[in-house]
Amino acid sequence: TNATGPAIFSLSVYRENGVQPTSLESELPPNGWRSIDLASLPSLSTPVRGSAILQISQPATVVVDQFYHYQPPCAPVVTLSRTPAGVLYDTDLVTFTASATGDEPVTYQWQVDGSPVSATTSYSATFAEGQHTIRVTATNAGGSSSATNTIYVSCSPPDFILHQEPAGVIFPNDPIHFSLTGTGTPPLEYDWWVDGIPSEETTASLDLTLPAGDHTVHFRVRGSCFMAPDAEGSRSFTVVEPPAAGPDLSLSTLTAGPHEAPGGDELLYTAILRNSGGKVALGTHFSNMLPGGLDYVEGSAQASNGGPVYYDSGFRELGWTGDIDPGAPVMITYAARVVIPPPDGEILNTAQVLHGGVTTLLPSRTTYLPRFTLVINNGEISTNQLTIDLTFTYDTALNLTYYQLSEYADFRTSEYTTPLLPLNGSPQVHPDWNFDPYGDPRLPRTVYIKFGDDTQAVWGPFSASILFDEQPPAQPQVSLAPLDFSPAQAARDALASPMEWLVTTTDDNSGVAEIVITSAGGANEVRLPITGRVTRITWQPNFFGDILFRARDRSGNLGPALRYPPYHLYLPV
Fold first, then answer.
1. Residues 308, 350: one domain?
2. 260 and 227, same structural domain?
Protein backbone atom coordinates (compact mmCIF):
# COMPACT_ATOMS: atom_id res chain seq x y z
CA THR A 1 0.00 0.00 0.00
CA ASN A 2 1.02 3.61 -0.30
CA ALA A 3 1.32 6.11 2.48
CA THR A 4 -2.15 7.59 2.21
CA GLY A 5 -3.70 5.22 4.64
CA PRO A 6 -4.64 1.65 5.41
CA ALA A 7 -6.11 -0.67 2.77
CA ILE A 8 -8.28 -3.75 2.69
CA PHE A 9 -6.66 -6.82 1.03
CA SER A 10 -9.09 -9.33 -0.52
CA LEU A 11 -8.14 -12.55 -2.40
CA SER A 12 -10.58 -15.14 -3.78
CA VAL A 13 -9.38 -18.35 -5.50
CA TYR A 14 -11.77 -20.32 -7.75
CA ARG A 15 -10.96 -23.94 -8.66
CA GLU A 16 -12.27 -25.58 -11.83
CA ASN A 17 -13.04 -28.86 -10.08
CA GLY A 18 -16.14 -27.47 -8.44
CA VAL A 19 -14.74 -26.92 -4.91
CA GLN A 20 -16.01 -23.82 -3.15
CA PRO A 21 -13.76 -20.76 -3.58
CA THR A 22 -11.12 -19.97 -0.99
CA SER A 23 -11.18 -16.36 0.29
CA LEU A 24 -8.76 -14.31 2.35
CA GLU A 25 -9.38 -10.81 3.65
CA SER A 26 -7.22 -8.64 5.91
CA GLU A 27 -6.16 -5.04 6.56
CA LEU A 28 -2.87 -3.67 5.29
CA PRO A 29 -1.21 -0.72 7.10
CA PRO A 30 0.09 2.30 5.15
CA ASN A 31 3.28 1.46 3.25
CA GLY A 32 2.71 -2.16 4.20
CA TRP A 33 3.07 -5.41 2.31
CA ARG A 34 2.09 -9.04 2.65
CA SER A 35 3.13 -12.30 0.91
CA ILE A 36 0.85 -15.36 0.76
CA ASP A 37 1.87 -18.84 -0.43
CA LEU A 38 -1.33 -20.30 -1.86
CA ALA A 39 -0.01 -23.85 -1.57
CA SER A 40 0.09 -23.39 2.20
CA LEU A 41 -3.65 -23.18 2.31
CA PRO A 42 -5.23 -26.60 2.98
CA SER A 43 -7.78 -26.32 0.19
CA LEU A 44 -5.15 -25.35 -2.41
CA SER A 45 -2.46 -27.90 -1.64
CA THR A 46 -3.11 -29.89 -4.85
CA PRO A 47 -2.28 -28.01 -8.10
CA VAL A 48 -5.30 -27.80 -10.34
CA ARG A 49 -6.53 -25.44 -12.97
CA GLY A 50 -8.08 -22.35 -11.39
CA SER A 51 -8.31 -18.56 -11.23
CA ALA A 52 -7.86 -15.82 -8.62
CA ILE A 53 -9.27 -12.33 -8.15
CA LEU A 54 -7.18 -9.90 -6.12
CA GLN A 55 -8.55 -6.60 -4.85
CA ILE A 56 -6.83 -3.94 -2.71
CA SER A 57 -9.05 -1.04 -1.72
CA GLN A 58 -8.89 2.08 0.37
CA PRO A 59 -11.97 3.86 1.51
CA ALA A 60 -14.23 4.40 -1.46
CA THR A 61 -11.39 3.59 -3.88
CA VAL A 62 -10.32 0.32 -5.50
CA VAL A 63 -6.59 0.60 -5.90
CA VAL A 64 -5.91 -2.84 -7.47
CA ASP A 65 -8.38 -5.11 -9.27
CA GLN A 66 -6.61 -7.94 -11.10
CA PHE A 67 -7.49 -11.41 -12.49
CA TYR A 68 -5.03 -14.27 -12.56
CA HIS A 69 -5.30 -17.75 -14.20
CA TYR A 70 -3.30 -20.71 -13.08
CA GLN A 71 -2.87 -23.88 -15.21
CA PRO A 72 -0.67 -26.60 -13.78
CA PRO A 73 0.71 -29.35 -16.17
CA CYS A 74 -2.17 -31.40 -17.65
CA ALA A 75 -1.99 -35.16 -17.15
CA PRO A 76 -2.30 -37.10 -20.45
CA VAL A 77 -5.37 -39.06 -21.53
CA VAL A 78 -4.28 -42.01 -23.69
CA THR A 79 -6.29 -44.17 -26.09
CA LEU A 80 -5.18 -47.39 -27.81
CA SER A 81 -6.25 -48.68 -31.25
CA ARG A 82 -5.18 -51.62 -33.44
CA THR A 83 -5.06 -52.75 -37.05
CA PRO A 84 -6.26 -54.96 -38.55
CA ALA A 85 -9.67 -54.96 -36.94
CA GLY A 86 -11.83 -58.06 -36.76
CA VAL A 87 -10.66 -61.65 -36.41
CA LEU A 88 -6.92 -62.07 -35.85
CA TYR A 89 -4.79 -65.02 -36.89
CA ASP A 90 -1.37 -66.05 -35.67
CA THR A 91 0.10 -65.11 -39.06
CA ASP A 92 -1.24 -61.53 -38.95
CA LEU A 93 1.04 -58.60 -38.17
CA VAL A 94 -0.93 -56.58 -35.61
CA THR A 95 -0.13 -52.89 -35.00
CA PHE A 96 -1.22 -51.01 -31.85
CA THR A 97 -1.16 -47.22 -31.91
CA ALA A 98 -1.28 -44.96 -28.82
CA SER A 99 -2.70 -41.44 -28.97
CA ALA A 100 -2.43 -39.11 -25.95
CA THR A 101 -3.81 -35.64 -25.22
CA GLY A 102 -2.02 -33.47 -22.66
CA ASP A 103 1.05 -31.31 -22.20
CA GLU A 104 4.20 -32.32 -24.00
CA PRO A 105 6.55 -34.04 -23.64
CA VAL A 106 4.77 -37.39 -23.24
CA THR A 107 6.59 -40.68 -22.80
CA TYR A 108 5.12 -44.16 -23.39
CA GLN A 109 5.73 -47.46 -21.66
CA TRP A 110 4.36 -50.67 -23.25
CA GLN A 111 3.61 -54.08 -21.77
CA VAL A 112 2.55 -57.28 -23.54
CA ASP A 113 1.01 -59.85 -21.25
CA GLY A 114 2.65 -58.05 -18.30
CA SER A 115 6.16 -57.93 -19.75
CA PRO A 116 7.68 -54.61 -20.88
CA VAL A 117 8.49 -54.12 -24.56
CA SER A 118 10.32 -51.30 -26.30
CA ALA A 119 8.14 -48.97 -28.42
CA THR A 120 7.18 -45.30 -28.77
CA THR A 121 3.74 -44.37 -30.11
CA SER A 122 3.12 -47.73 -31.84
CA TYR A 123 3.95 -51.40 -31.39
CA SER A 124 3.75 -54.16 -34.05
CA ALA A 125 4.08 -57.93 -33.62
CA THR A 126 2.60 -61.31 -34.49
CA PHE A 127 0.99 -63.23 -31.65
CA ALA A 128 0.62 -66.88 -30.86
CA GLU A 129 -2.81 -68.48 -30.68
CA GLY A 130 -4.69 -67.45 -27.51
CA GLN A 131 -5.54 -64.35 -25.48
CA HIS A 132 -3.11 -61.43 -25.12
CA THR A 133 -3.29 -58.10 -23.27
CA ILE A 134 -1.43 -55.03 -24.48
CA ARG A 135 -1.09 -52.08 -22.08
CA VAL A 136 0.36 -48.63 -22.73
CA THR A 137 1.01 -45.91 -20.12
CA ALA A 138 1.50 -42.26 -21.11
CA THR A 139 3.31 -39.95 -18.68
CA ASN A 140 4.11 -36.23 -18.52
CA ALA A 141 4.78 -33.62 -15.81
CA GLY A 142 1.09 -33.58 -14.88
CA GLY A 143 0.75 -37.30 -14.28
CA SER A 144 -0.01 -40.46 -16.25
CA SER A 145 -2.84 -42.58 -17.64
CA SER A 146 -3.08 -46.05 -19.13
CA ALA A 147 -5.10 -47.93 -21.75
CA THR A 148 -5.36 -51.65 -22.47
CA ASN A 149 -6.48 -53.78 -25.40
CA THR A 150 -7.21 -57.47 -25.06
CA ILE A 151 -7.08 -59.57 -28.25
CA TYR A 152 -7.98 -63.15 -29.09
CA VAL A 153 -5.77 -64.77 -31.75
CA SER A 154 -6.88 -67.81 -33.74
CA CYS A 155 -4.68 -70.26 -35.57
CA SER A 156 -4.40 -69.65 -39.32
CA PRO A 157 -5.82 -72.25 -41.75
CA PRO A 158 -3.52 -72.93 -44.70
CA ASP A 159 -4.10 -70.75 -47.76
CA PHE A 160 -1.69 -71.27 -50.66
CA ILE A 161 -1.31 -70.39 -54.36
CA LEU A 162 0.40 -72.63 -56.91
CA HIS A 163 2.96 -71.10 -59.30
CA GLN A 164 4.48 -72.70 -62.40
CA GLU A 165 7.70 -71.90 -64.28
CA PRO A 166 8.00 -71.71 -67.21
CA ALA A 167 4.53 -70.38 -67.91
CA GLY A 168 4.66 -70.75 -71.69
CA VAL A 169 5.35 -73.61 -74.07
CA ILE A 170 6.90 -76.73 -72.49
CA PHE A 171 8.67 -79.44 -74.45
CA PRO A 172 9.48 -82.99 -73.31
CA ASN A 173 12.27 -83.15 -70.70
CA ASP A 174 12.14 -79.39 -70.10
CA PRO A 175 12.56 -78.66 -66.34
CA ILE A 176 9.27 -77.51 -64.80
CA HIS A 177 9.28 -75.85 -61.37
CA PHE A 178 6.18 -75.59 -59.17
CA SER A 179 6.14 -73.58 -55.96
CA LEU A 180 3.62 -72.66 -53.28
CA THR A 181 3.24 -69.30 -51.55
CA GLY A 182 0.80 -68.59 -48.75
CA THR A 183 0.17 -68.62 -45.03
CA GLY A 184 -0.80 -71.11 -42.36
CA THR A 185 -0.03 -72.00 -38.76
CA PRO A 186 3.16 -74.08 -38.70
CA PRO A 187 4.22 -76.80 -38.80
CA LEU A 188 2.94 -77.36 -42.35
CA GLU A 189 2.83 -80.63 -44.30
CA TYR A 190 3.02 -80.68 -48.11
CA ASP A 191 1.71 -83.41 -50.43
CA TRP A 192 2.00 -83.51 -54.24
CA TRP A 193 0.42 -85.65 -56.96
CA VAL A 194 1.49 -85.79 -60.62
CA ASP A 195 -1.20 -87.15 -62.94
CA GLY A 196 -2.87 -88.76 -59.93
CA ILE A 197 0.30 -90.49 -58.67
CA PRO A 198 1.65 -89.39 -55.24
CA SER A 199 5.05 -87.71 -55.28
CA GLU A 200 7.79 -88.21 -52.69
CA GLU A 201 8.32 -84.43 -52.46
CA THR A 202 7.29 -83.02 -49.04
CA THR A 203 8.39 -79.36 -49.36
CA ALA A 204 6.73 -76.26 -50.79
CA SER A 205 8.24 -76.81 -54.25
CA LEU A 206 8.26 -79.54 -56.89
CA ASP A 207 10.58 -80.01 -59.88
CA LEU A 208 9.61 -82.22 -62.82
CA THR A 209 10.45 -83.27 -66.35
CA LEU A 210 7.56 -84.86 -68.25
CA PRO A 211 6.88 -86.49 -71.62
CA ALA A 212 4.61 -84.99 -74.26
CA GLY A 213 0.93 -85.00 -73.41
CA ASP A 214 -1.62 -83.52 -71.02
CA HIS A 215 -0.62 -83.43 -67.34
CA THR A 216 -2.06 -82.29 -64.01
CA VAL A 217 -0.17 -81.38 -60.82
CA HIS A 218 -2.17 -81.39 -57.58
CA PHE A 219 -1.08 -80.18 -54.14
CA ARG A 220 -2.38 -80.32 -50.57
CA VAL A 221 -1.11 -78.39 -47.56
CA ARG A 222 -2.00 -79.44 -44.00
CA GLY A 223 -1.58 -76.99 -41.12
CA SER A 224 -1.62 -77.47 -37.34
CA CYS A 225 -4.83 -75.47 -36.92
CA PHE A 226 -7.36 -77.85 -35.37
CA MET A 227 -10.40 -78.60 -37.57
CA ALA A 228 -9.24 -76.19 -40.30
CA PRO A 229 -9.63 -77.42 -43.90
CA ASP A 230 -6.55 -78.26 -45.95
CA ALA A 231 -5.41 -76.03 -48.78
CA GLU A 232 -5.70 -77.81 -52.14
CA GLY A 233 -5.31 -76.89 -55.77
CA SER A 234 -4.16 -78.12 -59.15
CA ARG A 235 -2.88 -76.96 -62.50
CA SER A 236 -3.34 -78.67 -65.86
CA PHE A 237 -0.98 -78.08 -68.75
CA THR A 238 0.28 -79.65 -71.96
CA VAL A 239 3.80 -80.72 -72.84
CA VAL A 240 4.09 -80.44 -76.62
CA GLU A 241 6.32 -82.25 -79.03
CA PRO A 242 9.25 -80.18 -80.31
CA PRO A 243 8.71 -78.50 -83.69
CA ALA A 244 9.21 -80.65 -86.72
CA ALA A 245 11.92 -79.78 -89.21
CA GLY A 246 9.41 -78.29 -91.66
CA PRO A 247 6.01 -76.63 -91.39
CA ASP A 248 3.30 -78.65 -89.65
CA LEU A 249 -0.33 -77.47 -89.86
CA SER A 250 -1.91 -80.66 -88.49
CA LEU A 251 -2.98 -79.00 -85.21
CA SER A 252 -5.19 -76.43 -86.95
CA THR A 253 -8.86 -76.40 -85.89
CA LEU A 254 -12.28 -75.09 -86.91
CA THR A 255 -14.95 -74.41 -84.28
CA ALA A 256 -18.41 -72.86 -84.39
CA GLY A 257 -20.40 -71.05 -81.74
CA PRO A 258 -23.54 -68.95 -81.51
CA HIS A 259 -23.04 -65.46 -82.89
CA GLU A 260 -24.58 -62.21 -81.67
CA ALA A 261 -27.43 -61.65 -84.11
CA PRO A 262 -31.17 -60.94 -84.02
CA GLY A 263 -32.96 -64.14 -83.19
CA GLY A 264 -29.71 -66.02 -82.74
CA ASP A 265 -29.81 -67.27 -86.33
CA GLU A 266 -26.08 -66.95 -87.04
CA LEU A 267 -23.03 -69.05 -86.26
CA LEU A 268 -19.55 -67.61 -85.77
CA TYR A 269 -16.84 -69.86 -87.22
CA THR A 270 -13.30 -69.62 -85.86
CA ALA A 271 -10.45 -71.24 -87.80
CA ILE A 272 -7.14 -71.42 -85.93
CA LEU A 273 -4.32 -72.11 -88.38
CA ARG A 274 -1.46 -73.32 -86.22
CA ASN A 275 2.04 -74.10 -87.46
CA SER A 276 3.67 -76.44 -84.93
CA GLY A 277 6.66 -77.07 -87.18
CA GLY A 278 10.06 -75.44 -87.27
CA LYS A 279 9.79 -73.34 -90.46
CA VAL A 280 7.44 -70.73 -91.88
CA ALA A 281 4.52 -72.18 -93.80
CA LEU A 282 4.79 -69.96 -96.87
CA GLY A 283 1.76 -69.55 -99.12
CA THR A 284 -0.67 -71.48 -96.90
CA HIS A 285 -4.20 -71.57 -98.35
CA PHE A 286 -7.35 -71.89 -96.24
CA SER A 287 -10.76 -72.52 -97.81
CA ASN A 288 -14.24 -73.33 -96.56
CA MET A 289 -17.12 -74.19 -98.89
CA LEU A 290 -20.19 -73.57 -96.77
CA PRO A 291 -22.67 -76.46 -96.57
CA GLY A 292 -26.26 -76.11 -97.69
CA GLY A 293 -28.48 -74.26 -95.30
CA LEU A 294 -25.77 -71.70 -94.43
CA ASP A 295 -25.27 -68.30 -96.09
CA TYR A 296 -22.15 -66.20 -95.56
CA VAL A 297 -22.75 -62.90 -93.72
CA GLU A 298 -21.24 -60.30 -96.01
CA GLY A 299 -18.29 -58.40 -94.49
CA SER A 300 -18.00 -60.57 -91.39
CA ALA A 301 -14.70 -62.32 -92.27
CA GLN A 302 -11.42 -61.12 -90.78
CA ALA A 303 -7.97 -62.59 -90.26
CA SER A 304 -5.79 -61.85 -87.25
CA ASN A 305 -2.77 -61.07 -89.45
CA GLY A 306 -4.72 -58.42 -91.37
CA GLY A 307 -4.69 -60.29 -94.64
CA PRO A 308 -7.81 -60.25 -96.83
CA VAL A 309 -10.41 -63.01 -96.64
CA TYR A 310 -12.37 -63.37 -99.89
CA TYR A 311 -15.75 -64.96 -100.57
CA ASP A 312 -16.76 -66.50 -103.90
CA SER A 313 -20.55 -66.35 -103.96
CA GLY A 314 -20.73 -68.67 -106.96
CA PHE A 315 -18.95 -71.52 -105.21
CA ARG A 316 -20.12 -70.36 -101.72
CA GLU A 317 -16.47 -70.57 -100.66
CA LEU A 318 -14.33 -68.47 -98.30
CA GLY A 319 -10.59 -68.32 -98.84
CA TRP A 320 -7.41 -66.89 -97.34
CA THR A 321 -3.77 -67.14 -98.39
CA GLY A 322 -0.76 -66.13 -96.32
CA ASP A 323 2.29 -67.17 -94.32
CA ILE A 324 2.10 -68.80 -90.89
CA ASP A 325 5.10 -68.52 -88.58
CA PRO A 326 5.94 -71.35 -86.15
CA GLY A 327 4.15 -70.86 -82.86
CA ALA A 328 2.18 -67.84 -84.14
CA PRO A 329 -1.33 -68.95 -85.16
CA VAL A 330 -3.51 -67.06 -87.58
CA MET A 331 -7.15 -66.85 -86.49
CA ILE A 332 -9.84 -66.40 -89.14
CA THR A 333 -13.41 -65.64 -88.07
CA TYR A 334 -16.55 -65.33 -90.16
CA ALA A 335 -20.30 -65.54 -89.61
CA ALA A 336 -22.81 -67.73 -91.42
CA ARG A 337 -26.56 -67.33 -91.28
CA VAL A 338 -28.71 -70.44 -90.78
CA VAL A 339 -31.34 -70.18 -93.53
CA ILE A 340 -32.50 -73.82 -93.34
CA PRO A 341 -32.29 -75.25 -89.79
CA PRO A 342 -31.13 -78.88 -89.79
CA PRO A 343 -33.81 -81.42 -88.80
CA ASP A 344 -31.67 -82.95 -86.05
CA GLY A 345 -30.14 -79.62 -84.97
CA GLU A 346 -26.58 -80.64 -85.94
CA ILE A 347 -24.57 -78.73 -88.58
CA LEU A 348 -21.44 -80.31 -90.11
CA ASN A 349 -18.97 -77.99 -91.85
CA THR A 350 -15.51 -78.97 -93.08
CA ALA A 351 -12.77 -76.51 -94.07
CA GLN A 352 -9.33 -77.38 -95.40
CA VAL A 353 -5.79 -76.07 -95.20
CA LEU A 354 -3.43 -76.63 -98.13
CA HIS A 355 0.36 -76.24 -97.91
CA GLY A 356 3.14 -77.94 -99.81
CA GLY A 357 0.77 -80.35 -101.49
CA VAL A 358 -0.60 -81.56 -98.12
CA THR A 359 -4.29 -80.97 -97.33
CA THR A 360 -5.46 -80.88 -93.71
CA LEU A 361 -9.20 -81.23 -93.14
CA LEU A 362 -10.79 -79.18 -90.39
CA PRO A 363 -14.21 -80.69 -89.52
CA SER A 364 -16.63 -78.83 -87.26
CA ARG A 365 -19.80 -80.16 -85.69
CA THR A 366 -22.14 -77.83 -83.86
CA THR A 367 -25.64 -78.02 -82.44
CA TYR A 368 -27.78 -75.18 -83.72
CA LEU A 369 -29.81 -73.57 -80.92
CA PRO A 370 -31.45 -70.25 -81.82
CA ARG A 371 -31.22 -67.35 -79.35
CA PHE A 372 -28.05 -68.64 -77.62
CA THR A 373 -24.98 -66.41 -78.10
CA LEU A 374 -21.61 -65.77 -76.44
CA VAL A 375 -19.42 -62.78 -77.33
CA ILE A 376 -16.04 -61.67 -75.90
CA ASN A 377 -15.26 -57.96 -75.60
CA ASN A 378 -18.02 -56.98 -78.02
CA GLY A 379 -16.59 -59.22 -80.76
CA GLU A 380 -12.90 -58.24 -80.64
CA ILE A 381 -10.55 -60.73 -82.27
CA SER A 382 -7.57 -60.09 -79.95
CA THR A 383 -6.63 -58.43 -76.67
CA ASN A 384 -3.57 -57.66 -74.53
CA GLN A 385 -5.49 -58.05 -71.25
CA LEU A 386 -6.16 -61.25 -69.31
CA THR A 387 -9.40 -59.73 -67.97
CA ILE A 388 -12.29 -59.66 -70.44
CA ASP A 389 -16.03 -59.01 -70.51
CA LEU A 390 -18.50 -61.66 -71.69
CA THR A 391 -21.95 -60.97 -73.10
CA PHE A 392 -24.38 -63.84 -73.67
CA THR A 393 -28.00 -64.44 -74.58
CA TYR A 394 -30.27 -67.45 -74.11
CA ASP A 395 -33.78 -68.64 -74.89
CA THR A 396 -35.96 -67.15 -72.15
CA ALA A 397 -38.83 -69.46 -73.08
CA LEU A 398 -36.89 -72.46 -71.69
CA ASN A 399 -37.16 -71.39 -68.02
CA LEU A 400 -33.41 -71.60 -67.54
CA THR A 401 -32.17 -70.75 -64.03
CA TYR A 402 -28.35 -70.82 -64.09
CA TYR A 403 -25.22 -70.57 -66.22
CA GLN A 404 -21.64 -71.72 -65.72
CA LEU A 405 -18.37 -70.54 -67.30
CA SER A 406 -15.08 -72.37 -67.66
CA GLU A 407 -11.81 -72.28 -69.53
CA TYR A 408 -12.16 -76.04 -69.95
CA ALA A 409 -14.64 -77.82 -72.24
CA ASP A 410 -15.31 -80.46 -69.56
CA PHE A 411 -15.95 -77.81 -66.85
CA ARG A 412 -13.49 -79.46 -64.50
CA THR A 413 -13.14 -78.12 -60.94
CA SER A 414 -10.68 -75.24 -61.17
CA GLU A 415 -10.19 -71.62 -60.21
CA TYR A 416 -11.07 -70.96 -63.88
CA THR A 417 -14.46 -72.66 -63.60
CA THR A 418 -17.27 -70.74 -61.92
CA PRO A 419 -19.95 -72.21 -59.67
CA LEU A 420 -23.52 -72.25 -60.95
CA LEU A 421 -24.51 -68.60 -61.33
CA PRO A 422 -28.06 -67.18 -61.49
CA LEU A 423 -29.51 -65.83 -64.70
CA ASN A 424 -31.10 -62.38 -64.48
CA GLY A 425 -32.27 -61.64 -68.00
CA SER A 426 -31.19 -61.90 -71.62
CA PRO A 427 -28.84 -60.42 -72.73
CA GLN A 428 -26.62 -60.65 -69.66
CA VAL A 429 -23.07 -59.43 -69.04
CA HIS A 430 -20.45 -61.29 -67.01
CA PRO A 431 -17.72 -58.68 -66.39
CA ASP A 432 -14.08 -59.19 -65.46
CA TRP A 433 -13.58 -62.81 -66.49
CA ASN A 434 -9.91 -63.71 -65.91
CA PHE A 435 -7.98 -66.06 -68.17
CA ASP A 436 -5.36 -68.42 -66.81
CA PRO A 437 -2.00 -66.58 -67.22
CA TYR A 438 -0.26 -69.92 -67.73
CA GLY A 439 -2.06 -70.83 -70.94
CA ASP A 440 -0.19 -71.67 -74.14
CA PRO A 441 0.70 -68.22 -75.56
CA ARG A 442 0.61 -69.61 -79.10
CA LEU A 443 -3.10 -70.41 -79.00
CA PRO A 444 -6.24 -68.27 -78.66
CA ARG A 445 -8.00 -68.33 -75.30
CA THR A 446 -11.42 -70.00 -75.26
CA VAL A 447 -14.34 -69.55 -72.87
CA TYR A 448 -17.09 -72.16 -72.57
CA ILE A 449 -20.61 -71.52 -71.27
CA LYS A 450 -23.50 -73.86 -70.52
CA PHE A 451 -27.02 -73.30 -69.20
CA GLY A 452 -29.33 -75.36 -67.03
CA ASP A 453 -32.73 -75.45 -65.37
CA ASP A 454 -34.15 -76.85 -62.14
CA THR A 455 -34.64 -80.29 -63.72
CA GLN A 456 -30.85 -80.57 -64.27
CA ALA A 457 -31.26 -80.41 -68.04
CA VAL A 458 -28.23 -78.75 -69.72
CA TRP A 459 -27.95 -76.61 -72.88
CA GLY A 460 -24.49 -76.26 -74.36
CA PRO A 461 -21.62 -75.90 -73.98
CA PHE A 462 -21.07 -72.98 -76.34
CA SER A 463 -17.70 -71.31 -76.81
CA ALA A 464 -16.00 -68.13 -77.96
CA SER A 465 -12.29 -67.45 -78.55
CA ILE A 466 -9.96 -64.49 -78.56
CA LEU A 467 -6.23 -64.11 -79.14
CA PHE A 468 -4.28 -63.01 -76.06
CA ASP A 469 -1.11 -61.16 -77.01
CA GLU A 470 0.78 -59.05 -74.47
CA GLN A 471 4.07 -58.90 -76.40
CA PRO A 472 4.69 -55.98 -78.79
CA PRO A 473 5.67 -56.61 -82.40
CA ALA A 474 9.28 -56.48 -83.52
CA GLN A 475 10.95 -53.32 -84.75
CA PRO A 476 9.92 -52.79 -88.37
CA GLN A 477 12.29 -52.66 -91.31
CA VAL A 478 11.71 -49.71 -93.62
CA SER A 479 13.22 -48.68 -96.93
CA LEU A 480 12.26 -46.50 -99.86
CA ALA A 481 10.65 -48.52 -102.62
CA PRO A 482 12.79 -49.08 -105.74
CA LEU A 483 12.45 -46.22 -108.22
CA ASP A 484 10.96 -46.85 -111.62
CA PHE A 485 12.66 -43.72 -113.01
CA SER A 486 15.87 -41.79 -112.52
CA PRO A 487 16.85 -40.33 -109.11
CA ALA A 488 16.99 -36.89 -110.74
CA GLN A 489 13.38 -37.21 -111.84
CA ALA A 490 12.48 -38.46 -108.35
CA ALA A 491 14.13 -35.40 -106.83
CA ARG A 492 12.17 -33.06 -109.08
CA ASP A 493 8.90 -34.81 -108.22
CA ALA A 494 9.58 -35.39 -104.50
CA LEU A 495 7.60 -32.43 -103.25
CA ALA A 496 4.71 -32.98 -105.64
CA SER A 497 4.21 -36.77 -105.41
CA PRO A 498 3.85 -39.10 -102.41
CA MET A 499 6.79 -41.43 -101.80
CA GLU A 500 6.52 -45.21 -101.69
CA TRP A 501 8.06 -47.21 -98.84
CA LEU A 502 8.57 -50.92 -98.22
CA VAL A 503 7.67 -51.84 -94.62
CA THR A 504 8.51 -55.31 -93.28
CA THR A 505 6.80 -56.23 -89.99
CA THR A 506 6.60 -59.34 -87.81
CA ASP A 507 4.56 -60.29 -84.75
CA ASP A 508 4.50 -63.71 -83.11
CA ASN A 509 0.82 -63.82 -82.17
CA SER A 510 -2.02 -61.44 -83.06
CA GLY A 511 -0.34 -59.99 -86.15
CA VAL A 512 0.61 -56.44 -87.09
CA ALA A 513 -2.37 -54.17 -87.77
CA GLU A 514 -0.78 -50.85 -88.64
CA ILE A 515 2.43 -48.87 -88.94
CA VAL A 516 2.58 -45.71 -86.80
CA ILE A 517 4.75 -42.90 -88.17
CA THR A 518 5.70 -39.85 -86.10
CA SER A 519 8.37 -37.19 -85.99
CA ALA A 520 11.19 -37.61 -83.47
CA GLY A 521 9.28 -35.48 -80.96
CA GLY A 522 6.19 -37.66 -81.19
CA ALA A 523 4.05 -35.20 -83.15
CA ASN A 524 2.50 -35.42 -86.62
CA GLU A 525 1.25 -38.98 -86.11
CA VAL A 526 0.23 -40.96 -89.20
CA ARG A 527 -1.28 -44.46 -89.12
CA LEU A 528 -1.31 -46.72 -92.18
CA PRO A 529 -2.68 -50.30 -92.42
CA ILE A 530 -0.38 -53.32 -92.77
CA THR A 531 -1.58 -56.04 -95.11
CA GLY A 532 1.18 -58.65 -94.94
CA ARG A 533 4.75 -59.41 -94.00
CA VAL A 534 5.92 -56.80 -96.52
CA THR A 535 3.61 -53.85 -97.19
CA ARG A 536 4.12 -51.17 -99.81
CA ILE A 537 2.80 -47.88 -98.42
CA THR A 538 2.44 -44.50 -100.07
CA TRP A 539 3.15 -41.55 -97.80
CA GLN A 540 4.54 -38.06 -98.23
CA PRO A 541 6.23 -36.65 -95.07
CA ASN A 542 5.16 -33.14 -94.15
CA PHE A 543 7.82 -32.47 -91.54
CA PHE A 544 11.61 -32.32 -91.35
CA GLY A 545 13.95 -34.29 -89.12
CA ASP A 546 14.12 -37.94 -88.15
CA ILE A 547 11.14 -40.20 -88.80
CA LEU A 548 10.04 -42.85 -86.27
CA PHE A 549 8.34 -46.02 -87.51
CA ARG A 550 6.54 -48.31 -85.01
CA ALA A 551 4.41 -51.39 -85.59
CA ARG A 552 1.18 -51.85 -83.61
CA ASP A 553 -0.37 -55.31 -83.40
CA ARG A 554 -4.06 -56.17 -83.33
CA SER A 555 -4.04 -56.43 -79.55
CA GLY A 556 -2.95 -52.79 -79.24
CA ASN A 557 0.72 -53.38 -78.34
CA LEU A 558 3.09 -50.76 -79.77
CA GLY A 559 6.54 -52.03 -80.72
CA PRO A 560 9.96 -50.34 -80.56
CA ALA A 561 10.72 -47.47 -82.92
CA LEU A 562 12.93 -47.53 -85.98
CA ARG A 563 14.56 -44.11 -86.42
CA TYR A 564 14.84 -43.30 -90.10
CA PRO A 565 17.38 -40.69 -91.31
CA PRO A 566 16.16 -37.09 -91.68
CA TYR A 567 13.74 -36.74 -94.54
CA HIS A 568 15.43 -33.59 -95.86
CA LEU A 569 18.14 -35.84 -97.35
CA TYR A 570 15.56 -36.89 -99.94
CA LEU A 571 14.40 -33.40 -100.90
CA PRO A 572 15.73 -31.60 -103.99
CA VAL A 573 18.95 -29.71 -103.36
1. yes
2. no
